[in-house]
Amino acid sequence: MLATLIRLLGDFDLAEEALHDAFGAAVERWGRDGVPANPRAWLISTGRFRAVDALRRRARADARGAAVAAEWEMDRDDDDPEEVEMASIADDALPDDRLRLIFTCCHPALPAEGRVALALREICGLTTEEIARSFLTSPSTMAQRIVRAKAKIRDARIPYRVPGREELPARLETVLQVVYLVFAEGYAATAGPGVARADLAEEAIRLGRLLVELLPEREAIGLLALMLLHDARRAARSEADGRLVLLEAQDRARWDGDKIAEGRRLVERALGAYPGPYALQAAIAAVHVEATDTASTDWPQIVGLYDRLLQVEPTPIVALNRAVAVAMRDGPAAGLALVDALLADATAGAVLQRHHLTHATRADLCRRLGRVAEARAGYERALALAQQASEQRFLRERLAALPA
Amino acid sequence: MKYLCLIRDEEAKLAAMPTAESDAFMERYFEFTQSVMASGQYVAGEALQPAQTAMTVRIRDGKLITTDGPFAETHEQVGGFYLIEARDLTEAVRIAARIPSAHTGSIEVRPVVDFSQPGANAEAMKQSAEAHR
Predict the structure, then answer these.
(1) How far, CA to CA in Å, does B26 sit from each of B21, B49, B50, B52, B95?
(2) How many beta-carbon contacts under 8 Å exist across A and B?
(3) Residue A162: domain span
(4) Percent of chain A with pLDDT over 90
């Protein structure tokens, strides 16, 4: 509904306020007169009219508001309002509105960090605080990014539409990043009680399918494959009480066979001579699900794929994951040496120090090497940084299981 | 989430406003309050007496010490507050920007600690400790 209102009103904030007002009106009206035949259309249409009223009220104090309101009056005179309403708020217009919204939020004129933040908030309904946690930054910094990005859209009059075919490839990269981050938040929620937020993961997969349909580029396909292969393991990743289950302990019978089959088919389409980061990550996920258990996993192949991933995406987190794969192939001492080298690096170390997974990984390698004191310190540091209840519980259990 | 919007204004400037202007200013406050009430975002709000009416209270070595006036003398004074309900900080900032004093003074937006959330207390203490490090 928000997506449709943004298209109709051409302004994020106005649309959000309008929706608030419409819900307020609905509580009152529906309680008295009953729920209308098409609640969604009622809300959108009410929100739209309320927005115009609000603009008119504000017009007295604000010249810009007056101009927008006047523009609106003209628009209304041009068309038969009833006809416009029904055509533009039909349910089947919804996917298009979401896609328009994605491309607007990912417009190259916006600063890169603002795009992702805006998309997560406006498309996926995450709060500023949730987004700040997944970016390891403060809510006030994140709020500033979002407010600035919105001001930019308004002031630069960034159009609310899906770009033409010739512009699409250049615009796709940021869109894929946004979809990936939405999935990441759904797959491993940064905060809150549960391990995964299925709604966000499903939303990201739906967006991914939409993009592949619109533009079947290798990386778009690779991203969809990656998301499906990860999501296939969702049911096995946590127990009924929310307890986290590591890959090595997961009941593989609970993996979703359909999603795995679809993901593997897509990986083959996504891998070319020069595979991109999403295709490579999907390939790694595919190697994991092909094995019957951790011991029979083809770790040399996984390390090889990480080597190539590190070339196209040289980030500290990729390097950390590669170290874990090396530890599985060559033993914990080899992995620990790599982790320590990363932590000693000025740039990578600064990023990794703040990440609870770094400390949990290091602690785990120390535990396997019998270096109990270091393992304990690492789990404790990870526990202090972890935001998520099931991860905190997992780390506490690891701590308790260490020999005294 | 609840957020406190702490309103700061220059009292001297407000006091020097011509009547017509200050009436219009109060009218804008009335309209703002009405609109956040209608949208369900209003939790509480009050205007405060001038800062000169303030008393500051401390207990040191078991003794009660009171001083006249606000805790800190700055050119802007706390003049009132709104407690609002917003989806997130971005929405709270946008609501705060509609408070009339945003044009004349400033609005400090502060998230309220939700003690019903597990670990909220520890989290707030940790953030405060980090901020003062």
Answers:
(1) 9, 15, 16, 21, 17
(2) 45
(3) 96-215
(4) 36
